[in-house]
UniProtKB/TrEMBL annotation:
<dbReference type="GO" id="GO:0004047">
    <property type="term" value="F:aminomethyltransferase activity"/>
</dbReference>
<feature type="domain" description="GCVT N-terminal">
    <location>
        <begin position="20"/>
        <end position="276"/>
    </location>
</feature>
<dbReference type="InterPro" id="IPR013977">
    <property type="entry name" value="GcvT_C"/>
</dbReference>
<feature type="domain" description="Aminomethyltransferase C-terminal">
    <location>
        <begin position="294"/>
        <end position="372"/>
    </location>
</feature>
<dbReference type="InterPro" id="IPR006222">
    <property type="entry name" value="GCVT_N"/>
</dbReference>
<keyword id="KW-0808">Transferase</keyword>
<dbReference type="InterPro" id="IPR029043">
    <property type="entry name" value="GcvT/YgfZ_C"/>
</dbReference>
<feature type="binding site">
    <location>
        <position position="209"/>
    </location>
    <ligand>
        <name>substrate</name>
    </ligand>
</feature>
<protein>
    <recommendedName>
        <fullName>Aminomethyltransferase</fullName>
        <ecNumber>2.1.2.10</ecNumber>
    </recommendedName>
</protein>
<dbReference type="Pfam" id="PF08669">
    <property type="entry name" value="GCV_T_C"/>
</dbReference>
<keyword id="KW-0032">Aminotransferase</keyword>
<dbReference type="Pfam" id="PF01571">
    <property type="entry name" value="GCV_T"/>
</dbReference>
<dbReference type="InterPro" id="IPR027266">
    <property type="entry name" value="TrmE/GcvT-like"/>
</dbReference>
<dbReference type="GO" id="GO:0008483">
    <property type="term" value="F:transaminase activity"/>
</dbReference>
<dbReference type="GO" id="GO:0005829">
    <property type="term" value="C:cytosol"/>
</dbReference>
<comment type="subunit">
    <text>The glycine cleavage system is composed of four proteins: P, T, L and H.</text>
</comment>
<comment type="similarity">
    <text>Belongs to the GcvT family.</text>
</comment>
């Protein structure tokens, strides 16, 4: 990729545009402010877009995400110290889901880290946390022979998700995808443009994420869109992305994750690797942390009214938890939610209630994910 830095420019002191903003305008998108970015929330209907991802394919602009590169002989050791995962164990060409924690053990951000080359890593951060993640990585890597380069402004990120995504991406890149496993990446070309192609996503479907130079984003988007037209590919906004990730049981920072919560609260203690050599930020606090007083669970509701973020979860008349995310599932046809509840009420099958605008609606604790894509 080249180093064009014309992509992410401020339109007001508080609103940023991705390099694909004009494309979204031409496609008739409705916009919302998300983490300081003007982002397409939908193009037609979130239900139509949600269905397209589950049955065909959807195309997303994720250029608001942060991309921070670490390179050098000790880049792996720097990340082992900076993050809770064992990134030195990730093979070149693979990726891993991990987290950055504070000294207290609270989650600063959840991340996907790619290792395109032996001595080069790409850390992908949530939009609202990208600046903080880059700053903390610089601080935590200062004692290592590693260079930290915030590539967010120079990088566009486009996702193609859904059962038809392999055919679409193969047509657009000419790449043989048969050996590209889930959570793996490879260099590829879309037209004349060099990209990093990763088999990752946030929808519960098979899919790909394409990292491109920001100055080439429009051309890459249009090439993918043209390749997807025979396969039912639709542009998709943040609204359906949220219901897709909820059905797949994937946490959202600011809802299921935050600095007041450890990975263990969210049932993600497996990402914390205490067996790696040396210290890491948050190790002492996480090793001594007691059993969480509240845990993340899935809830299945009845009828058509879904419990939403901030609604109380009840056992009888007593509040025993709070909903973090909820919606009427477009795929399943019934209300679903994630919630933090007291540990004694976390067993699947437990019957509880949700306070939905003053009325208690029955909900049942269920295992997540709510939806799993069909296997062939």
């Amino acid at each position: 990729m080249n180093s064009a830095k014309t992509a992410k420019t401020a339109t007001t002191p508080t609103t940023l545009k991705t390099p694909l903003h004009e494309v979204h305008l031409q496609l008739g998108a409705s916009f919302t402010d998300f983490a300081g970015w003007s982002m397409p929330v939908r193009y037609s209907s979130e239900l139509v877009e949600h269905k397209a991802v589950r049955e065909a394919a959807g195309q997303f602009d994720l250029s608001h995400m942060g991309e921070i590169e670490l390179s050098g002989p000790q880049a792996a050791q720097a990340l082992d110290y900076a993050l809770v995962g064992k990134l030195s164990a990730v093979k070149a060409g693979r990726a891993r889901y991990t987290m950055m924690c504070e000294e207290s053990g609270g989650v600063l951000d959840d991340l996907v880290v790619y290792r395109p080359e032996q001595d080069r890593f790409l850390v992908v951060a949530n939009a609202g946390n990208a600046t903080v993640v880059a700053q903390r990585l610089r601080e935590r890597a200062s004692g290592f022979d590693a260079h930290v380069d915030d590539r967010s402004e120079a990088t566009a990120l486009i996702a193609v998700q859904g059962p038809h995504s392999p055919a679409i991406v193969a047509a657009a890149t000419g790449a043989d995808l048969s050996g590209l496993k889930y959570y793996a990446s490879m260099p590829a070309r879309v037209g004349e443009h060099e990209v990093l192609l990763a088999r990752t996503g946030y929808t519960g479907e098979d899919g790909f994420e394409v990292f491109a130079d920001a100055g080439e984003a429009v051309s890459v988007w249009q090439s993918l869109a043209a390749a997807g037209e025979p396969h039912g590919l639709l542009p998709c906004g943040l609204a359906c992305r949220d219901t897709l990730r909820l059905e797949a049981g994937m946490p959202l920072y600011g809802n299921e994750l935050g600095t007041e919560l450890t990975p263990m609260h969210a049932g993600l203690g497996r990402v914390v690797k205490f067996d790696k050599p040396g210290d890491f930020v948050g190790r002492a606090a996480l090793e001594k942390a007691p059993e969480p007083d509240r845990v993340l669970v899935g809830l299945r509701g009845e009828g058509r009214r879904a419990p939403r973020h901030g609604y109380r979860v009840l056992h009888g008349e007593r509040a025993v938890g709070e909903v973090t995310s909820g919606a009427l599932s477009p795929t399943l046809g019934y209300p679903i939610a994630m919630a933090y509840v007291e540990g004694e009420f976390a067993e699947p099958g437990t019957e509880l209630g949700a306070d939905i605008r003053g009325r208690t609606q029955p909900v049942t604790v269920v295992a997540m994910p709510f939806y799993k894509r069909p296997t062939t």
